[in-house]
């Protein structure tokens, strides 16, 4: 009875080893890319352009593109939102300042930049792969999807900007003072 099932385990061991080695190498290169923010975003931009060219070339997959747009919009909201939202969570000491006399606390994002980049890049790769599956090319009138996405974007960003104004936070580092050391 020892022979039953042992062949499946022997075949799975090299596969598991390869998967482990691949995951380790992938994580190594992902960790090495962390400080190269501009290069990472340029790579994602190139990937997005390849996806757009693919959709334009095949004249289809508008539902996949719409889903990708909704997902990216959701990630954008997480990127612009504070980790601790004063409207939703009880104030436990790690909140945004609401008045001029409050102590300054740095803006901490709900979705950090690296996870934002990684999620968007992964989404474009998955959407690109989906363009090779003809079953997912659902015939739709794409201008309606585009108009609906634009309306969603405008309403969502309006709400997010009003939230930023109400709680006086800026999710960008542009124009903020940086410590340069002793001169």
Structure characterization notes:
This is Protein RER1. It comes from Malus domestica. It is a multi-pass membrane protein. It is found in: Membrane. By secondary structure, the protein is an all-alpha fold. The protein has one domain (37-167). The chain has five helices and no strands. The chain has helices spanning 6-33, 37-58, 62-80, 113-130, 142-167. Helix 2 runs parallel beside helix 4 (113-130) and helix 3 (62-80) packs parallel to helix 5 (142-167). The mean pLDDT is 84.
Question: Tags for this entry?
Answer:
about 180 residues; mainly alpha; about 60% helix; membrane; transmembrane helix; Rer1; transmembrane
Secondary-structure map:
Layout lengths: L5 H28 L3 H22 L3 H19 L32 H18 L11 H26 L16
- How large a portion of the residues is in β-strands, by DSSP E? under 5%
Share of helical residues:
55-70%
What is the total number of structural domains?
Answer: 1
Order of secondary-structure elements? HHHHH
Structural class: mainly alpha
């Amino acid at each position: 009875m020892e022979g039953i099932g042992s062949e499946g385990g022997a075949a799975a061991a090299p596969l598991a080893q390869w998967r482990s080695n691949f995951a380790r190498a992938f994580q190594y290169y992902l960790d090495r890319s962390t400080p190269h923010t501009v290069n990472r975003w340029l790579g994602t931009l190139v990937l997005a352009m390849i996806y757009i060219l693919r959709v334009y070339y095949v004249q289809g997959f508008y539902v996949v593109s719409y889903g990708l747009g909704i997902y990216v919009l959701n990630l954008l909201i997480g990127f612009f939102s504070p980790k601790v939202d004063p409207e939703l969570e009880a104030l436990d000491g790690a909140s945004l300042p609401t008045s001029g006399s409050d102590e300054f606390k740095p803006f901490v994002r709900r979705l950090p930049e690296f996870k934002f980049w990684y999620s968007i890049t992964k989404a474009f790769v998955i959407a690109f792969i989906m363009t090779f599956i003809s079953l997912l090319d659902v015939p739709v009138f794409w201008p309606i999807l585009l108009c609906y996405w634009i309306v969603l974007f405008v309403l969502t960003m309006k709400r997010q900007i009003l939230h930023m104004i109400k709680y006086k936070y800026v999710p960008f580092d542009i124009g903020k003072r940086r410590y340069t050391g002793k001169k």
